Amino acid sequence: MPPPETTTLWDFPRQSVDGFRIGDPGYPGVTPALACVNVIRRFTAKGDLVVDSMAGSGTTVDAARLLGRRALGFDLAPRRPDILPADARALPLPAGCAHLAFIDPPYSDNLRYSDDPRCLGLLPAPEPAYYEAVEAVAREAARILRPAGVLAWVTSDEYRRHRFTPVGFRTYERLLRFFEPVDVICLARRHDRSGNPMWEHRARTRGFYLRGFKYLFLMRKAAAE
Ligand SMILES: C[S@@+](CC[C@H](N)C(=O)[O-])C[C@H]1O[C@@H](n2cnc3c(N)ncnc32)[C@H](O)[C@@H]1O
Hints:
By secondary structure, this protein is of the alpha/beta class.
């Protein structure tokens, strides 16, 4: 396993780590394994509980278990038996049980995750309804975290149909309602569907930029009085 990151710019050339199975590199929207590994190592100890309420292919769950942490993953459309069906806005967990919540939600309606009408991936990022849903997911994460528990939240801005949407800033405003800032990591985007010569040509000739990074917001729930 590579040594922990030391700066706020994280650039992982591949989703996976040699010799380990951490999530599914073929899953659309999969989180880079080393993003989870770095956050879990930094903010939790062995035996702590890590929760991912939008677990997808299970990257957070796999990374946490590999590092000797307890892990629970939930998703509206679970892809594995150890990921449990639940809406991230209503988790079947008691308040204050988790040390870390790692959440990499849909960033807009560009990828189809499921037909479940509760899926955030059906909500376009330019619309207020997306941020209402984000806020509800964040509120639930704050409920299940212990005092001083950490939230890691991945997101990306959107440029689509000639329109830029600052999804990161708008999401951060909502997260600040429940969490205090810890740090912001810039996570280089690799292997996106737009990372090919056709899209690069379009970006140059049509005057827009392809997304080169995602945000990884690190935040903390207030400590108990
Ligand atoms: C970007 S993917 C997560 C990727 C995951 N971290 C991985 O590495 O595989 C977003 C996930 O959020 C799930 N999702 C969307 N809306 C949800 C909701 N309301 N409650 C729970 N899961 C939801 C989708 O089914 C999808 O699996």
